[in-house]
Amino acid sequence: MKVLFKIIIVAFIFLYAFPTMAQKNSPKGKIKAGYDVIHPFKNGRAKVEKDRKQGYIHVDGDEYIPCKYDNIYPWESGRAKVEIGGKFGYIKQDSGEEFIPVKYDYIGPFKNGLAIVAVGGRRGLINEEGAEVVTLDSN
User: Coil, strand or helix: which one is 89?
Assistant: First the structure.
């Protein structure tokens, strides 16, 4: 019983202190205050959270993807799916540019350079640049 209690206490301390440690141990100490969570830096960038919105900062502390997304999914091939209010789009990893607008109800994974998209029950295909190569049908 004592061992279980110690494990619970250690887990609680770790979970409580982790966001604070991430902020205090940030590179060069130039991170601006005001983020609720700063995730670990990877390749000179870190995901940040503020008021339940997500964005990214560079290692120098500059925010290059604003904290406006409900979710930023993992990076794949230099891009990440983003979500705002149940709508999806894509951003570029190098610039943070939103190159596929956040307007789709669904975006599937890219396969052979194409992804299925849906808006209001209509489906179509987009290419990796975001152009609709098969326009949304009218079901």
Answer: strand
Which residues pair with residue 79 across a beta bridge?
76, 92
What are the structural domains, with CATH classification, of the chain? 1-69 (no CATH), 71-139 (2.40.10)
pTM, entire model:
0.74
Rounded Cα gap, residues 76 and 1, in angstroms? 44
Reference 92, options 77, 78, 102, 103; nearest CA is 78
Nearest to 139 by CA among 123, 127, 128: 123
Q: Say if residues 104 and 89 touch (Cβ distance below 8 Å).
A: yes
Name the helix (H) or strand (E) containing 6: helix 2-24
CA 13 to centroid of chain Cα atoms: 26
Q: Which two tokens stand for residue 90?
A: 């894509």
Q: What is the largest CA-CA distance in the chain?
A: 64
Determine the Cα–Cα distance for residues 76 and 93; give it in Å rounded to an integer: 9
Q: Per-10-residue mean pLDDT for the chain, 139 residues long?
A: 62 51 48 82 93 94 94 94 97 93 95 95 93 78
SS3 call for 110: coil
Residue type at 74 in one-letter notation: P
